[in-house]
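SAMPLE LOG
Freezer: B-3
Tube label: C17
Construct: single chain, 272 aa
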Amino acid sequence: MPFIAHDSLICPIDGLALLFKNNSLCCSSGHRYDVGKPGYANLLSVQHKRSRAPGDSKEMVHARADFLSAGFYEPIACQLADIISVQGEDELSLVDAGCGEGYYLEKIDSLIDKRLDLVGFDISKWAVQRAAKRCQGTWLVASNKRIPLADNSADIVLDMFGFPDFDSFARVLKPDGKLICVTPGDKHLIELRKIIYPTVKPTNGRQYPDFFSRDTQRTITYEIKLDRTALDNLLAMTPHLYRAPKDRLARLAKLEQISMTIDVRLDVLNPT
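STRUCTURE (predicted):
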């Protein structure tokens, strides 16, 4: 897909406007970011990286893409589309903070009639490369700490099972914008967690800072059936693969299929 330069892009180093020319994004201070194939820009500067290749690996991205493409989380995307479709404007700037391989933005865009200016960013270059192939939008390698968008420029920000930076979300949201957070409920993947952990801890829900107020909350609970391949993909795309004891993972490896509970909360928040 060709690169689309959102008109609110800013330099993550000095906050100056970024202009797209000669296949690069440049600010007036001289910082330059090349646009690579298949149409994304890497705005994660070296001094802001915690490792040489931050974020999900190519293998994790591949596993999640295969899992999501099978439709297991499609009800979540449909609920998001339902929420976004009733927002007032006919054209919305929709930002996915930690977009992964772009599944949710692509699905939402296909489900509603509004014109959406899609912006997706993630610290994993492998995820963003894959997202840029899915659909047209502004795809960036960037972090929540330094969201490369101007103040008050986003109508909606999505935080999908992510690591939120609420200060940054509040900065980029318009005064009447919405932050939609999707977080796991107590029963989410409970069958998997019971197998791989000696003790299953409750999720306890997420606490939000005072400068956000809850507008609405939805709970989505349903059951999916996973074969061995889908189970492997699920495990590979979550932190459970690296947290679980080896003997417990060995027990899981003996299963050929399993029923799994999906239990998530959708919190719609207003900046105050």
